[in-house]
């Protein structure tokens, strides 16, 4: 039981950066804009958060910088996809390469340096609940903020009028335009906001999780976040479940290495990604049987008012 508690608590910590990026992608894709550049955006956010935290000594300033950096680089993607109507897949891949190159260039002198990041903050009473407390309520403030964000987005997307407008823009932008909504402005806002959340996911890695800067430290988490959006059927709560599942497998392979497992280290390090492939395969099989619901109908489709019939 103690081993299980430790692994599950580590799963929450490991899954949080992927969760932030997944939530950002859910919001963006719900608005009809596919952003495959999460890996690059997370890297830029990770470096920005680390640099600002190191300069100011305040991790909250670092997280704010991560959000701002994520918004800034995603604004380029939004301009290309929404205004210029470029191919969203190509633009997303360009964002990945840009993020890799930009973060590597700016972070050359910071490799290996450490900072005083965010500390653990146990929640009173809740942290003392047997089994549940150590898993969910003995973490840092960013983990607790992710809980709130999941609940808020579920409420916002499915139970509010602005959330209905968001879904309308992604499902049927022509109908949304006929209702008087500005499809372009809404897509810009949600795409950029989603990129900001991906930047926060990167900032969590450098400011909270590792508390140091390592080139390429996202290690594929941005791609995992894209996959988890599909796994979660564009639902924030299900995306959170997928993020914690990924974090759990990652935590398990780290614990097995620490225990001196005879299994190859390289094989253990691939476990989280193998699990992701298995999950996506299951989802694809269900889609082939007509059970996959939730993908916005206008996802990846540029909107031109001149084409409205």
UniProtKB/TrEMBL annotation:
Query: Can you say where in the cell this protein is located?
Result: Cell membrane
Q: Which GO terms describe its cellular component?
A: plasma membrane
Q: How does it sit in the membrane?
A: Multi-pass membrane protein
The reply to whether Cell membrane figures as a keyword in the UniProt entry is yes
Q: Which UniProt keywords apply?
A: Cell membrane, Membrane, Transmembrane, Transmembrane helix
TM ranges are: 31-53, 60-85, 91-111, 141-159, 187-210, 222-246, 266-285
Q: Which PANTHER family match?
A: ABC TRANSPORTER PERMEASE PROTEIN (PTHR43370:SF2), SUGAR ABC TRANSPORTER INTEGRAL MEMBRANE PROTEIN-RELATED (PTHR43370)
Family annotation (Pfam families): BPD_transp_2
The source's domain of life comes to Bacteria
Please give the Gene Ontology molecular function terms for this protein. Answer: transmembrane transporter activity
Protein name in the entry: ABC transporter permease
Species for this entry: Cloacibacillus evryensis
> InterPro entries recorded for this chain?
ABC_transp_permease
């Amino acid at each position: 039981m103690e081993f299980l508690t430790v692994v599950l608590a580590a799963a929450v910590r490991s899954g949080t950066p992927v969760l932030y990026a997944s939530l950002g992608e859910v919001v963006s894709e719900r608005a009809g804009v596919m952003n495959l550049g999460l890996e690059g955006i997370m890297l830029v956010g990770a470096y920005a958060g680390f640099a600002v935290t190191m300069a100011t000594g305040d991790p909250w300033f670092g997280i704010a910088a991560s959000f701002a950096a994520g918004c800034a680089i995603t604004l380029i993607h939004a301009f290309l996809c929404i205004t210029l109507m470029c191919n969203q897949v190509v633009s997303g891949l360009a964002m990945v390469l840009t993020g890799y190159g930009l973060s590597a260039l700016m972070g050359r002198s910071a490799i290996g340096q450490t900072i005083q990041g965010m500390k653990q903050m146990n929640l009173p009473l809740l942290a003392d609940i047997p089994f549940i407390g150590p898993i969910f309520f003995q973490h840092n403030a960013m983990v607790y903020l992710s809980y709130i964000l999941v609940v808020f987005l579920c409420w916002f997307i499915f139970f509010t009028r602005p959330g209905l407008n968001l879904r309308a823009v992604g499902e049927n932008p022509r109908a949304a335009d006929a209702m008087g909504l500005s499809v372009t402005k809404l897509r810009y806002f949600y795409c950029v906001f989603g990129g900001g959340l991906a930047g926060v996911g990167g900032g969590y890695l450098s400011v909270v999780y590792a508390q140091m800067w390592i080139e390429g430290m996202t290690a594929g988490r941005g791609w995992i976040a894209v996959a988890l959006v599909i796994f979660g059927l564009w639902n924030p709560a299900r995306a959170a479940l997928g993020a914690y599942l990924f974090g759990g497998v990652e935590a398990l392979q780290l614990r097995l290495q620490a225990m001196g497992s005879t299994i190859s280290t390289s094989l253990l390090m691939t476990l989280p990604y193998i699990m992701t492939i298995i999950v996506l395969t299951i989802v694809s099989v269900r889609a082939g049987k007509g059970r996959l619901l939730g993908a916005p109908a206008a996802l990846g489709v540029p909107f031109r008012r001149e084409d409205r019939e």
